[in-house]
Design a protein that fits this description.
single chain; globular; TerB-like; two-stranded antiparallel sheet; 6 helices
């Protein structure tokens, strides 16, 4: 059993109009979340974002070999390329947040860790794009959390205040 698993009674869901096959797994949802922050928000994949992305993924799924990660990455990228709008890609990102919530059984400690991962990936290029803030806040809301973010101009680091939503 990995740290990140889908309960057998849950069906993997895609955004409206997006058909995800049986091969779409919790690994796909995690890659999709990280990819969303790394690419969707600012249309760039900074090498540092990619490095942190891969390290974070490995922390959640240490038993997934690099070849399997590359396969999942390719499948998620293929789905992204098949979507005809950024709105559809955002919809898939939001659906993956819901799938992750279910995969982690609502465990707040793990959900907080996912938000911190997203923040670290977003801040890897020492920038904080408004779309990144919006997407992280959307994930936090899905997880029952409240996230306030800002870029510290002196350090170039993204600062996060994360609380339970009331």
């Amino acid at each position: 059993m990995t740290k990140f698993e889908t309960p057998s009674h849950l069906k993997r869901l895609g955004a409206p109009g997006v058909k995800l096959g049986r091969e779409w797994t919790p690994a796909h949802d995690l890659v999709n979340l990280y990819l969303g922050i790394a690419v969707l928000a600012d249309n760039e994949l900074d090498p540092e974002e990619q490095r942190i992305f891969m390290r974070k993924f490995g922390g959640w799924m240490p038993k997934v070999p690099l070849e399997e990660f590359e396969k999942v990455w390719g499948e998620v990228m293929s789905v992204h390329r098949s979507l005809d709008s950024s709105e559809a890609r955002y919809g898939l990102y939001l659906q993956s947040t819901i799938n992750v919530l279910h995969s982690l059984g609502g465990n707040k400690k793990k959900l907080r860790a996912i938000i911190r991962d997203l923040v670290e990936i977003a801040g890897a290029d020492n920038k904080l794009h408004e779309n990144e803030v919006t997407m992280i806040k959307a994930a936090a809301i899905t997880f029952g959390l409240s996230a306030d973010l800002r870029l510290n101009a002196k350090t170039g680091q993204v600062e996060l205040i994360l609380k339970d939503a009331n």
